[in-house]
Amino acid sequence: MSESIANNLLHAHNEWQFMKLRPLLLVKTLPQLPNSRIVRPLIRTLTILITLVTAHTFAMVQLEHLTIWQSVWLTLTTLTTVGYGDLSAVTPMGQLATIVLMYLAAITLVTFLIRDYVDF
Q1: Residue 11 DSSP code
Q2: Phi, psi values for residue 91, rounded to 5°
Q3: In terms of C-beta distances under 8 Å and separation of at least 24 residues, what long-range contacts does 35-44 make, across chains too?
Q4: What is the dihedral of CA 35, 17, 3, 31, to 10 degrees?
Q5: What does the pLDDT look like over 91-111, one tens digit per residue?
Q6: Of 88, 96, 92, which Cα lies nearest the Cα of 66?
Q7: CB 84 within 8 A of CB 75
Q8: Is the overall model pTM greater than 0.85, yes or no?
Q9: What is the rounded CA–CA span in Å between residue 114 and residue 120?
Q10: Minimal CA–CA distance to 91: which of 67, 64, 66?
Q11: Domains of the chain
């Protein structure tokens, strides 16, 4: 069954329409696509990024007593290095969690991206 899904996706006239209508089938199919050398590292990188965002958001809710939306906002503005300054960690534990997020995201994700997509 998954071979037919991969074939349908690869030979579809409108790939975006196919993906829009069948997102769960697409997720099952991704590892079987010909460019799985690219897809697997991308999935790994996205998984790490989502895990970091979720963990930091949860930490900000617990440590800083922010709402979920405020925690997501703080996390994403920190990751993108925008840092508007409207929200920031105030407690030492919240600040430590934010420092860990910045270093883990920068070191881990940049290392993976360089290793996976740059030829030496």
Answers
A1: T
A2: -75, 155
A3: 38/116, 41/112, 41/116, 41/117, 44/112
A4: 40
A5: 999 999 999 998 888 888 778
A6: 88
A7: no
A8: no
A9: 10
A10: 64
A11: 1-34 (no CATH), 36-120 (1.10.287.70)
